[in-house]
Amino acid sequence: DQPDLEAAASSFSSATRLSPRTARYWMDLAVARENLGQIDEAQASFGRALAAFPQSAQVHWEYGNFLLRQQNIDEALNQIRGAVVGDSQLTYIAITRVWRATESPERVLSVLPRRSAALIQAVDFFADSRSLSPGLDIWNELIALKQPFELADTFQFFDELIKEGRSADAERAWLQALAACNLPHQSPANGSVIWNGGFEQDIENGGLGWRVQPASGMSMDYDESIYHGGARALRLDFEGGSNVDLAQPLQIVPVQPDHAYHFRGFIRTEGITTESGMRVYILDPQRQNAILLATDNLVGTHPWTEVAGDVRSSPNTNFLVVQVRRTPSRFFENKLAGSAWIDDLSLVPAISESSAKSGSASKGM
Fold this sequence. Notes:
Radius of gyration: 29 Å
Shape: elongated
Structural class: alpha+beta
Helix content: 40-55%
Number of helices: 12
Number of strands: 9
């Protein structure tokens, strides 16, 4: 309530004389001297703390922050790096402090150990800050490390790329992330912008892959005995106890603005009840999820049935949403039962489709 910095500094000084190897006392003395405006004496006290406990992450951290306040940036970064190497829990706050002090992604990198976990925290920080240009600089360094990481750790970064309409960057980074995680990373052979359209790989649940959420009244699995192409299909089973409102799985796909695309996919149904069955929707999130395509409504039992249609992105659209859809029934007997299979979904740019047709015609000649 009644601070007395002079008395505090005197007491801390006495403590350092009684226990000169205790780094904490030297740091307390340094803080008191800094508050008294005795900057040179404060720096000398931090130096004594570092000499007493050179392996202490906390000493490096407090000394580094003192140096930041004194605008001694280079030496501050050396000390902060020592803190982060000694205590990885300081990584995120170190990124924050260094960025605010320097606004330099290179300076942020300089305090981080060359480990993927540290660089992913930096990528997340820039995603949080909506500063994607420096975030992409850090991302490039992360990929250059050639160290594996968990794909799910990148989803926050991809969500921000999607929010800011960075479709080309997202597409490039997605292939890089899959390769770094040792996952299949070949682009669809037909030029489709839908990733894993045949569900040959497990659902990624983020990034530019398929996304699902737990839902009541249904179950979802892969079927290796019934499929249209490849080696399996996605199977949806409905329990018959609820009026299911289904809007998944969904995928956010990168597209070119003001461009035509052709959608094609295959759905198989068995005993789907009610008048509201299985469809595929394509939505434009830039236009309040305007429905660009709703495929034919499949109820009852159908063999593999092609569903298709054409869409065009708006001049401001960089991503579209593709989702498996079943809208709730409006009738009294509205409980959904039965099974559906989804396979071989593709969304192909019109120019790619035209080129493919021209290539086929040339071969025929």
